[in-house]
Amino acid sequence: MRSVLAIARKDLRLMFRDKGDVFFTFVFPVLLAMLFGFVFRGAATGGSRIAVALVVESDSRIAAGLAEDLAGDASLDVRRVTTREEATDGVRDGTFTAAIILPQSMQAGADRLFSGGSIPIEAIIDPVRRAEAGLIQGKLNELAFRQFPKLLADDAQSKRMFQSMREAIAASKDMGAAQKLAAGALIATAESFVKSMPGGDAGSKPAAGGAGAAWSPVQVRMQELPPRTGVPRSSFDVSVPQGMVWGIAGCVGAFAASVVTERSRGTLVRLRLAPITRAHLLAGKGLACFVTALLVELLLIVLAVTLVGTRVAQPGMLALACVLSAFAFAGLAMLIAGFCRTEAEANGAGRGALLLLALIGGGTIPLFFMPPILQTLSYASPFRWAVIAIEGPLWRDVAPAAQVTPLVVLAGLGFGGFAAGSRLGAFRDAR
Amino acid sequence: MLTLRDIRRSFGSTTAVDGLSLQVQAGEVFGLLGPNGAGKSTTIAIATGLLRPDAGSVDLLGLGSPADAEVRRHLGLAPQEIALYGELTARENLRFLADLYGLADARSRVEGLLAMVELDARADDRTEGFSGGMKRRLNLAAALVHGPRLVMLDEPTAGVDPQSRNRILELVRTLAAGGTTVLYTTHYMEEAAKLCDRVGIIDHGRMLDVGTVPELLARHGGTAGEASDLESAFLALTGRSLRE
User: Which residues of A touch B85 (CB under 8 A)?
Assistant: First the structure.
């Protein structure tokens, strides 16, 4: 066992010190997964502007002003929809990043603005779009503040607001008679000041760090939709398994060449002289490949969860799928290693075959986008089974019975690869 | 220590080793000399168990063939081509081999060897940046990491500077003094004359003669103690025609 671990540790060191192998095994798949994810997401949401559904339930002036400002904002692609349900469905199916609802209670909130009230705005977001949620919340606060000059310039609105304040003071039990009198005088002065103001300036903004910063007259309530099952929650659900495919392909390519590299650098002689068997050598190299493939999968899952909000539907099953797919590809690496007698064979034919298998196995075009003929061909690719095994517990949330076939195929590929590889030329030379 | 009996090995129509027999005694430095293509490397490969002979037998320490992993454990080889991992440091290279052999005292063994080949100051440098002489010294240390009783050195001084060459020869003498048996191939006659207790000269896959340097010189016309005379004896045995 110690010799197996020594070979694995040495091969991992060699792998991590080869910049090319590290790039194609770890960096390239991450870039690919992120790139595909953002490209597909951009396509779904109409480019770099954030697609937002807007439901205007309030017929107040502040709601109208806010809707107008939202529609005119360059960073938002606002589409008016009539009901909350329609907006929610649009967020759920990915048509919109978020839904903004200007509720009927906006008017009441505006009326009680200086007597403990606030203007309510609701937003519904997909949990996987949290990155945009913060931006939308900030945008809503900014645009809502812009409505205040209009609010104060509106006679009827300001009358209702000051009346509401007077009623609140009159009803207060904490204030003494003198305090109520003083507060009433203050309100009267403020009302005179507002009346003396010229027309509202819709373009003005609250001063940074001014009253608006400490006081929150706008209450933006963000509501996350419950996680969806059975459909990709975002383009990253699809692109992350694709990234894994390319990471594993890079890993297999690196380790498939390692036996012939040992031969060309002369170190195979040392391995053959050591008191180890062919099985030890195969196990050591296979273990290094397995660990690397597992690290690639783990890296992509961690990045997907932390950076783009991917939610894993079945963590335990996903762990099993990752372990078995890493095992399958370690076996495949050993099979290719057994076939190849020269570095040229390993780097040319070996990597070429992997590239082809990755392409038809869902590495570039997601399996469900493939035409029927390619879907049929993909059954021959081990990458297909890895993608299916990983997508199942990642976002498809399939029943355990549906996971059995891909997992059994992966386990079979692993055992088959190790068994066949050990009987082929390169390993046979190694005793 | 090592016995090769009537070894034969062909590659296609080319006979590389043709009925070669050889006996290396425990504790001696045995020089195996021969022109290029004489069959030295094939003989070494068969003696280490890396290559199976078509006929004949190999016995190491009376334990049997080095094809057996347990027998092979007593054998060390410094191949002619440097066999090191360039991306690993000197220490990592030796430590890997120590772990491969399952040595309990791997750490102290590695540190001792690094000091012995005077690479302890460069132990944490990747070997790809080493000079030819440093690589040769480490290649030798790698053959010794598991403390073999017989070590085969295949042209260990090829392409090194005089300082490294001198250090390698000192190391071989130290090994022999410590009881390690050495099978040494070289093209340098003066090395063989200075270092080897006995010398075997092979050509065309056959052992032409075996003996101490004075014995060879006596039989083939040289004068004892002079390196150039061993070369004369070598040429007398193998001929003067070019081989490449």
Answer: 10, 14, 265, 267
Which chain B residue has its CA at the smallest distance from A19's CA? B87
Q: Which residues of B touch A (CB under 8 A)?
A: 48-50, 67, 69-70, 72-73, 75-77, 79, 81-88, 92, 96-97, 99-102, 142
Please answer yes or no on whether A266 and B96 come within 8 Å at the CB atom.
no
How far apart are the CA of B9 and the nearest CA of chain A, in angstroms?
A: 17
A74 burial level (CB within 10 Å; 0-12, 13-18, 19+): exposed
CATH class of A50-224: alpha beta
| 3-class DSSP state of B22 | strand
Distance, CA of A346 to chain centre: 35
Burial A14-31 (b: 16+ CB within 10 A, else e): bbeeeeebbebbbebbbe
- Rounded to whole angstroms, the Cα distance separating A154 from A63 reads 14
The widest CA-to-CA distance across chain B, in whole angstroms, is: 52
Say which amino acid occupies B200.
G
Domain residue spans in chain A? Answer: 2-41+230-430, 50-224
- Do A6 and B99 make contact, defined as CB atoms within 8 angstroms? yes
Place B31 in a pLDDT band, splitting at 50, 70 and 90.
very high
The span from the CA of A265 to the CA of B86, in Å, is: 9
Q: How many CB pairs under 8 A join A and B?
A: 69
Of A111, A7, A172, A313, whose CA–CA distance to B100 is shortest?
Answer: A7
Residues A430, B49 contacting (CB under 8 angstroms): no
Q: What is the pLDDT of residue B227?
A: 47
Contacting residues of B for A285, CB less than 8 Å apart: none
pLDDT in tens, A196-220: 655 444 444 444 444 444 456 778 8
What DSSP line would sit under A202-263, residue for residue?
A: TT--PPTTSHHHH---EEEEEEEPPPP-SS-SSHHHHHHHHHHHHHHHHHHHHHHTHHHHHH
Q: What is the DSSP string of B116-175?
A: HTT-GGGTTSBGGGS-HHHHHHHHHHHHHTT--SEEEEESTTTT--HHHHHHHHHHHHHH
Predicted TM-score (pTM) of the model is 0.68
ipTM of the complex: 0.84
Q: What is the pLDDT of residues A94-121, one digit of tens each?
A: 678 889 998 988 888 777 766 667 788 8
Beta bridge partners of A123: A100, A222
